Amino acid sequence: MALPPIGGLVYTAVHLQRLSTQSQAAVSRAVTATRASSALVEEVTDMERVVRQYQVVSEAPLLDLFRRIHANFSRTISELSGLPLDDVQRQRLQVLTDLAEQARSRLAHPSAEAVPLAVRNLTELSNLVRMVLADSKALIEREVKVMENNAANTQYFLYWQAVALGPTALLLAGLFVVLINRPILQFDSALRRLGDGEFATPIVVNGPRDLRELGNRLDWLRRRLVELEEEKTKFLHQVSHELKTPLTALREGSALLAEGVVGELSTDQAEIVGILKNNVATLQRLIEDLLKFNLARSAQSALLTTPVFLDALVSEVAADHRPAIIAKGLKPRLMLARITLRGDAKKLRVVIDNLLSNAVKFSPQDGELILRLERHTDNAILEVEDAGTGIAVEERTKVFEAFYQGHHAGGGHLKGTGIGLSIAWEYVHAHGGKIAAVSPRELPGACLRVTLKLAPEGDRPSACGCET
Prior knowledge:
Blueprint: H1 3-57, H2 60-81, H3 87-108, H4 114-195, H5 209-258, H6 267-296, E1 306-309, H7 310-320, H8 322-327, E2 331-336, E3 340-343, H9 345-362, E4 368-376, E5 379-386, H10 420-430, E6 434-438, E7 447-453
Parallel strand pairs: 2-4
Antiparallel strand pairs: 1-3, 4-5, 5-7, 6-7
Helix pairs in contact: 1-2, 1-4, 1-5, 2-3, 3-4, 4-5, 5-6, 6-10, 7-9, 9-10
């Protein structure tokens, strides 16, 4: 009588060991995919930045730095190649390798013609590496699906074993099902959170010692990723500030040249100085966007809430954009309900400014703009519509990811840092609200909607958010 239960337990133990081994392999592959793909994005960004600097200053140490980063890039590609990728993903890695090698070959003997071609290679590489990041997420999803299937198969086996072994075996099998499914579901949830970039929640796995140890290792990975994220944020903050000093010198120097302080400029010289001033202004705006993004994700972004007269704030931001609106011949329509809420006026201004800047940027010449502010029960709904090419349905959630840039209907890549909407997302969620790209009501382009909780009605404050 004891042999069937013992045999069933032995067979179950074999299944558990196999499941544990498969889980460890899946976690290892998921960890490698997450770390390597993130490193790949940073390395490509670093290579492009270094080559663009070399294009300007032509200093040999920059080429040495490029070669070191390229070597790290090659090692990262090798790591990703060792994962169970499909043919499309392997072809994409090969294209990345070829583009990087082309850039390296052209910079081995840099010339006036070779350096711009290398920059073009790295720009294509930067665009393509985002797809590799998406491939890594897809790989994690596949690993999770394999674990779910293995868990389902094990559960199915235990069910029929319980039926065959009788009531006692049924009770034991039920206990094993609970013990198996709980850690598997915990692994499933943990892997999904890591794949989505959510590192704040500690990972706890209950069950056998091996699975608990595996959970501890996964939580160590989470903590390490948090540390790396903090180091990256600190580095971004320091580099952005360091860049502001030489940038100030460039801005002031180009202004002095334009004013003729060192002598009257020829037509060609004035044109070159104009190009320099425009690019310095663009660089300053990009650095300021990076600083805003860094601040939005840091602890320094705590809200300083006061009553905010939201309709007046929207009107002020629209007035600030009036020169750009006039330049493009746009026809703005403001439909603003009188709404007061408690919030951080400065951060809400940044949200509105980023949404309106985005709409103005992608509106066609002589197009329309709609700014709509409405009250829906206990919520304030702000919508910004434009008549541009719109946002594809599959990109409506991705546009709020940091450094993500969508595509025009014609396939052209959008210009910019890709962090304006990310900053808006951070600030809106800091207010406990929601932001989404939705289908527009009237115009053919994009519609971005912000939903904020309303505070009880009180005295109407000034638009700056100060008490009156």
